[in-house]
Design a protein that fits this description.
By secondary structure, the protein is α/β, with parallel strands linked by helices. 37% of the residues lie in helices and 25% in strands. A 6-stranded mixed β-sheet has the order 6-7-8-3-9-10, with helices on both faces. α5 crosses α6.
Amino acid sequence: MTARLRIENLSKVFAENPRPALEMLRAGAGKAAVLEALGQVVGLDDVSFDVPSGAIYMVMGLSGSGKSTLARCINRLNEPSAGRILLDGQDLCALDEAGLRAIRRSRVSMVFQHFALLPNRRVIDNVEFGLKLRGVPPPQRRRRAEEMLHIVGLARWGHHRPHELSGGMRQRVGLARALATDADVLIMDEAFSALDPLIRTEMQDELLRLQRTLNKTILFITHDFQEALKLGTRIAVMAEGRVVREGTPQSIVLEPGSDYVAAFTREVDRARLFDARSVMAALATILRGQDRIVVGDASGEPGPGFLLDGEARVLGALSAAEVERARAGGPKPEPDGAFTCVPAGAKLVEVAGRYRPGEPIGVVDEAGRLVGLLGAREILARIAAGGSHD
């Protein structure tokens, strides 16, 4: 994927003269050593990562890890001490005040933890606010605000004041306001952490629903690893101002890489995190005819297989004996048994619910083509597996 937002060697030292601290950091000193030697606080230490276009990129860590400092540096509420922030190749750190205002008004929007709504303005006026700052004519910005309120399910609440809404509804207003500007990047800084657990879950689901429609590039700051797993396309885990692990949710759970990261993964419900694609066995073509294909496990282990048509769609299941006869050049195989097919993106908890003892499970892509095989042993092993801390 193309990187919409690229962070390159970003550092932030809270000091009038950060140079001595930066020199210590480059020499290998950590945040604690800088504080002890210079009395200066390091917020970020050489942070680098790419946020792909259309991704929900999660930055998570404990309090003091640097994640909120990172968010504030990206829109330059905090001035970085070193490094670059590239938005479609444009370095935001090199912008003057006028250029930065233009970026904030049209290309980067924020959703805050405590809503940051204007209490004396109606909901629709709050949603219009960013468009008003950009000089959008009143009729046009009203139409856009009404459209966004409809998208977040608050079309009937536009003429109410924020205090008349619940916490979850106010956060939807903040989200609608950010979306109204049609910004390239949406930064969400602990956006749901002030909400009650049930409302928080609803807002997470709402964000995923909106993302399927709008396909925004989102940088989401959180201290909740479960939230990062649920929402994230990729995750950067921070500690002491540094990124200590970066990758897909699945890869981080499987290979945390350190005790610090592993501590977040211990209570993860793997059945709801991993999908069929992550555990399926690769296919091997055993026999190919004019309009029939026999496939089995690419490992060569004896087991059932499938008979496919010329487009790789499943015609039926084959017993292990039928697969071996096909491998040996025997008579034309015939399907002989019930089977189940699941989408490649189906979570293992869904797959387990559809499993029938003795029936092979095929994994299919969006076009219905067979792309892999599943067995109960592989499903259970992935759900029970522990990550490596190396």
